[in-house]
Specification:
Strand content of chain A: over 45%
Shape of chain A: globular
Number of strands of chain B: 11
Strand content of chain B: over 45%
Largest sheet of chain A: 6 strands, mixed
Structural class of chain B: mainly beta
Distance between the termini of chain B: 35 Å
Order of helices and strands of chain B: EEEEEEEEEEE
Oligomer: heterodimer
Helix content of chain A: under 10%
Structural class of chain A: mainly beta
């Protein structure tokens, strides 16, 4: 079974600074997808960024980018120019590309990101 | 975004009572999921469905049952609620055909408190 580990229960960053959230995963598969979801206090789960394992290029979405290291099984999220609205729980998640929709996503335990004004 | 609604959004019940949470989607997605979210555990899969009347267990299925009689509805039932089932429950959907982007779409969550 796959596992996803987020080693930072909580992170704090000054507004406008850059912060990196860590995620490692364990899998024996070669084809998979990785995701970062954001959960603000509203509880809504919002997709931040997605990475296909077969793509070597790191995904980028505006101020959000990832550092995907397939051999190291690492998938960190970098938030540049942090804004107060970035304050949330962030979840790293894994999905196999070989099982269709079976088993859904496997989530890490989350990192609580605090933005200091 | 997929139109996913959960009901009720909040519920307080007593130990031993049955509880049913409903998830309704308007996107005709094939796969539907129920997750529970607890502090320090992230989201864990309870059950999922891959079609009408087709369901399978997830990581934390004990004490829960599900049913899917229509594509759009996925019900989660706690036959006899226990305090350990106090949690926030999320429904999610997935469809492989939409450009195969891979992500799940989530409902707003339902907070269940079992006293």
């Amino acid at each position: 079974a796959q596992t996803v580990t987020q080693s930072q229960p909580e992170m704090s960053v000054q507004e406008a600074e850059t912060v990196t959230l860590s995620c490692t995963y364990d899998t024996s598969e070669s084809d998979y997808y990785l995701f970062w979801y954001k959960q603000p206090p509203s509880r809504q789960m919002i997709l931040v960024i997605r990475q296909e394992a077969y793509k070597q290029q790191n995904a980028t979405e505006n101020r959000f980018s990832v550092n995907f290291q397939k051999a190291a099984k690492s998938f960190s999220l970098k938030i540049s120019d942090s804004q107060l609205g970035d304050a949330a729980m962030y979840f790293c998640a894994y999905r196999s590309a070989n099982r269709g929709g079976a088993d859904g996503l496997t989530f890490g335990k989350g990192t609580h990101l605090i933005i200091q004004p | 975004d997929a139109g996913i609604t959960q009901s009720p959004r909040h519920k307080v019940t007593e130990t031993g009572t049955p509880v049913t949470l409903r998830c309704h989607q308007t996107e005709n997605h094939r796969y539907m999921y129920w997750y529970r979210q607890d502090p320090g555990h992230g989201l864990r899969l309870i059950h999922y469905s891959y079609g009408v009347k087709d369901t399978d267990k997830g990581e934390v299925s004990d004490g829960y049952s599900v049913s899917r009689s229509k594509t759009e509805d996925f019900l989660l039932t706690l036959e006899s609620a226990t305090s350990s089932q106090t949690s926030v429950y999320f429904c999610a959907t997935f469809e492989m055909d939409r450009g195969y982007t891979g992500e799940l779409f989530f409902g707003e969550g339902s907070r269940l408190t079992v006293l």
